[in-house]
Structures are given as structure tokens and as C-alpha cells.
Write a structure and sequence with these properties.
The protein is an alpha+beta fold and about 375 residues long. It folds into two domains: about 20-255, Rossmann fold; about 265-370, Jelly Rolls (Sandwich). About 30% of the residues lie in helices and about 25% in strands. It has helices at about 5-20, 45-50, 70-75, 80-85, 115-130, 155-170, 175-185, 190, 210-230, 250-255, and strands spanning about 25-30, 60-65, 90-95, 135-140, 145, 150, 170-175, 195-200, 205-210, 270-275, 280-285, 295-305, 310-315, 320-325, 325-330, 335-340, 345, 350-355, 360-370. The strands form five sheets. The chain has a six-stranded antiparallel β-sheet, with no helix packed on it. A five-stranded parallel β-sheet has the order 2-1-3-4-7, with helices on both faces. The protein has a four-stranded antiparallel β-sheet with strand order 13-18-15-16, with no helix packed on it. Strand 15 and strand 16 (about 335-340) form a beta hairpin. The chain is elongated. It starts with a helix and ends with a strand.
């Protein structure tokens, strides 16, 4: 093989390797709330483990979080060295500690919150800046600890130490303590157990670590805050991040003019003849018909065997969605066979009607705007 062919082959191989590498990398330094777990620990999941599901293929997540570590022990046991060997210009370093720094009974992990804890965190910031990476400090995610209806702030001075350090050093901050506490308050004591490791069949009632649903919810909070720090991230996020709750959620609920509600269709069923001059019998379910200030009508209608709605012309938009059964739908002089999964939109000026077909009741969800 000639020298030029060898060089060309090596160049092509190098191009293929570099082309396959993600354009962006985010590293996570943290504890068990962020770390990854194997299938043998299911459903236990760290939020760092759920983070890749929010980012497109141009981002690689390198999750170095380790169970049981504090900001001190993560460094003293050499875990930060593993990040240092890989970290480079343009990377992002997310740093979340606090849970184990609070353990005063263990001098290998404990850090006094006002001085020692921020001093250890500062070493992560210094490493990132030295390598041209972007450090982002993350306050510790909340524990699920309620006293009756009151959620307790178990991180107190430690979360505040992270906030103060971020402000002092002009480092990006994700206040996960605050956002996860808002999320937990809105969920409530009993419902929030389903997100943490409350797994009776495994004999677990753990208020610190997450099931997959909780880890995903917390990863969403992280990404939503990350986008606020760096709006360019939005283009690389593949899932919606409209998650969590405002700090005012409980106050908003008390100020609500009309309460939200859950109803059972069996309490609403009304037997009616086919509407708009239709044939046969139908059963209507007028959901939330008495709810004040509702800008739309939402109902279910069941067309029993041989039933139909008569032809009528529209002055507003109306949507039919077929839940079950089959029907013959007439729209503007044309007929369409419809079945479960079909949706039909009728615009102002159009005419339509529908009749049940086959042996099964035709079940429709119907939605249209209320008259002003």
C-alpha cells in the first residue's frame, strides 16, 4: 500500500470517528439522586440517568454521579479526576451535592455548610473554568418529607450555600431545591410517594431516591432551568419541559374562582332521540355542562343501533372523535366510513350528519365553542 493511500485511509477513519462524536457534552458530578442504576435496582433511577431522554443526538451525557458521595468524598476518592481527564473546552459540568455533605455523623463526608461546603464546590467550578467548560451549580433535589400537609426544607443552609456561591462566583445556578419543593407541594404527600422509592413489594419506603417517573420529572426540572440559563439549549431539547409547578401553586388554588373537578359519566347519562332531526335513540353525556366560564362544550354521545344525527349546517367549528364502533359520516355532500380513531372537523358553512353502522354502538366525543 502506498504512503498516500495509507494517509488517505487514516484520514478517512479519523473523519468517521470525529463525525460520529456528539457536538456537545454535559458531565454530571453528584450523588445517588443523580447517579445511574442497573436493571437489578429497578425501578430506582437517578435524574442524571433520565437526562439523555430530553436531549437530541448532538448532546452526550456523561454521568459521573456516585451514590453516597459528598462534595468532599467525590474529590478525595478520585471521582473528580475521572471528569478532569475528559473535560474540555465547550463542555458543561453540572454539579449537585448536599445530601451527604449534611451527614455530620460521618467525618469523611460531612461539610459545614457556611464555609467548608462552598470551598469544596469551588474546586469543581475552578476545574471547569480551567478547561474552558461551563460550570453550573445545582442545589440538592428535595427530600419527600411532609409534616402533615407541610413540606419540610431539609437542605436549608446547604441549598443557600450553593445559591450564595453561584452569585458570588457568577456561576450559572439551577435551583433544584426550590423547583422540586414546588413540585412536591403541588403533588401532595400521598400522591408524591409514587415518584419516590415507595415500593411495597420490595419493602422500600425511601423518600430520597426516585422511581423512573420521579427521576424523569426531576430531569425535566433541570432541563427547564438550564434553558433559562442558556436559551440556545431549547433547540436541542426533544421533549416539552412545561413541568413542575409555580411557587404560588397552593395560593393560586385557594384563589381559584371555580374549582377543578372529576366526574363519572355514569352520573350524567341522558337518553335522547337523535339530535337535529335524527332517528333512533342516543345517550348523551354532557361533561361539565354547568361549569361556569367554560369557553367550549365537551360531551360524549352514544348512537345506539339505527340511530343518527340529522343533517345540519354549522356556524362554528366542531370536532367529532370516534371512540368505538362504526358510522357513516356525511360531510358537504360526500360520505365517509368512519371508525375508532377517526377525527372529523366541521368548519363554519359546512353541513354534516352521522349514522351508526354495524352491530356496535357508535361512541363519539364532541367538542365545540360555546355561543358568546
Amino acid at each position: 500500500m502506498s504512503k498516500w493511500l495509507v494517509l488517505l485511509t487514516l484520514s478517512f477513519a479519523t473523519w468517521r470517528i470525529s463525525a460520529a462524536e456528539p457536538a456537545h457534552r454535559v458531565f454530571i458530578a453528584g450523588d445517588s439522586t443523580a447517579s445511574a442504576y442497573g436493571p437489578e435496582r429497578a425501578p430506582r433511577t437517578g435524574w442524571g440517568q433520565a437526562l439523555p431522554g430530553f436531549l437530541d443526538s448532538s448532546w452526550e451525557v456523561r454521568n459521573h454521579a456516585q451514590s453516597g458521595r459528598s462534595s468532599r468524598s467525590f474529590i478525595e476518592q478520585g471521582w473528580l479526576d475521572g471528569i478532569a481527564r475528559e473535560l474540555r473546552k465547550g463542555d458543561v459540568l453540572l454539579v449537585q451535592f448536599g445530601h451527604n455533605d449534611e451527614k455530620i455523623e460521618d467525618p469523611t463526608r460531612y461539610n459545614e455548610p457556611l464555609h467548608d461546603f462552598p470551598q469544596w464546590l469551588l474546586r469543581y467550578v475552578a476545574l471547569a473554568r480551567e478547561r474552558g467548560a461551563t460550570p453550573i451549580l445545582v442545589t440538592p433535589v428535595a427530600r419527600r418529607e411532609f409534616d402533615k400537609t407541610q413540606l419540610l426544607d431539609t437542605h436549608g443552609l446547604y441549598a443557600q450555600a450553593v445559591r450564595d456561591l453561584a452569585a458570588r462566583e457568577r456561576v450559572g445556578l439551577i435551583d433544584l431545591t426550590a423547583s422540586s419543593m414546588d413540585w412536591l407541594r403541588a403533588l401532595g404527600d400521598e400522591p408524591s410517594k409514587a415518584f419516590y422509592m415507595h415500593v411495597p413489594e420490595q419493602g422500600q419506603a425511601d423518600d430520597t431516591h426516585f422511581q423512573t417517573s420521579g427521576a424523569t420529572a426531576v430531569a425535566c426540572l433541570v432541563v427547564a432551568a438550564w434553558i433559562k440559563l442558556d436559551p440556545s439549549m431549547k433547540a436541542h431539547v426533544v421533549r416539552d419541559t412545561d413541568c413542575g409547578a409555580r411557587a404560588t401553586a397552593l395560593a393560586d388554588l385557594k384563589a381559584q374562582a371555580h374549582p377543578s373537578s372529576v366526574i363519572d359519566e355514569r352520573e350524567l347519562a341522558v337518553l335522547q332521540p337523535g339530535p337535529h332531526g335524527g332517528t333512533g335513540e342516543t345517550t348523551a353525556y354532557p361533561f361539565f355542562a354547568d361549569a361556569p366560564d367554560m369557553p367550549f362544550v365537551f360531551r360524549k354521545r352514544m348512537l345506539h343501533r339505527g340511530a343518527s344525527t340529522g343533517l345540519h349546517q354549522h356556524d362554528k367549528d366542531e370536532i367529532y372523535y370516534v371512540l368505538a364502533g362504526r358510522g357513516i359520516y356525511t360531510l358537504d355532500g360526500k360520505t365517509h366510513e368512519v371508525h375508532a380513531g377517526n377525527a372529523m372537523l366541521t368548519r363554519p358553512g359546512s353541513t354534516h350528519s352521522i349514522r351508526q353502522a354495524g352491530d356496535e354502538d357508535l361512541q363519539l366525543l364532541i367538542m365545540y365553542g360555546r355561543n358568546p
